[in-house]
Request: fold
Amino acid sequence: MTDLHSPLLRTAGDSWNITESVGATALAVAASRAVETAGSNPLIRDEFAQLLVSAAGPAWAQLADPSIAWLDGDEHGQRLHRVGCDYQAVRTRYFDAYCAAAAEAGIRQVVILAAGLDSRAYRLQWPSGTQVYEIDQPKVLEYKAEILSAHGVAATATRHAVAVDLRDDWPAALTGAGFDPTRPTAWLAEGLLAYLPSDAQDRLFQMCTAQSAPGSRIAVEAFNMVVDGNRRRWDRMRDRLGLDVNIGDLTYHEPDRSDPAQWLADHGWQVHSVGNHQEMARLGRPVPEDLVPDAITSTLMWGHLTGAQR
Ligand code: SAM
Reply:
């Protein structure tokens, strides 16, 4: 019988570089942003995604190629992959808008949890004085900083790399890097939760809440990728490109995991959420009906601290 609690490829305290294990998922989602950015009517612009992905090697460069030529002759695979890229574009746009709204509301401290190859600290127009803290594993953050710096790309905010594992005592590392818990913060957890065991997810939310001054906000993607269609998408990446991004075996499938929207609502956050298929339809990228059973489902949400219950 399959153990639904333990991903096949994970161990407590495991670590990775950008092309290994969970690190490779950062490349895969950045490749989707590169595909979207090069498209004819992009929902987002991430000028650095192509650079960051192709620097990892030729197979990764193919994954970031907007023609999706690596799936030539496989129409179903191309359609499914396109839906995956559309979803990444929609979620990026949702969280870009969240960052813009937080800045508009006067928040000048942003913490990107599991930043991966997120280039918001380099590509968004931050108000002067904004501090962006990026938390991820050391080799992932190093890779991004090295590639961007080698190409003369400068951050548009004051960027702080906080190299720490999110299963550990990350608030100490965050404050050590200059984070000020007395100032309102905009937290972002995009593409992260399912890579954490459920107890680490609860601790993550507890720690964010404890470090949040009045006026703070939080944005979260709660995703469920374990459907056969997605599995076949990763199989194609392995078979055609030799890339091993087996998200199904890297994520924790715990049926009793806390529902993030409920957890946040129970702990003083007023939460606004939307299903990803609804948001994709709203932005003109509906999931074709025949692909709905195979497409990723997720909830995108953001909340602000009401202070009513902590
Ligand atoms: N948020 C980024 C984005 O949307 O482009 C990256 C998402 S990527 C799918 C997952 C990221 O989570 C990787 O960069 C990985 O290193 C990071 N991650 C997962 N578990 C982590 C942990 N326990 N500690 C630190 N980073 C972690």
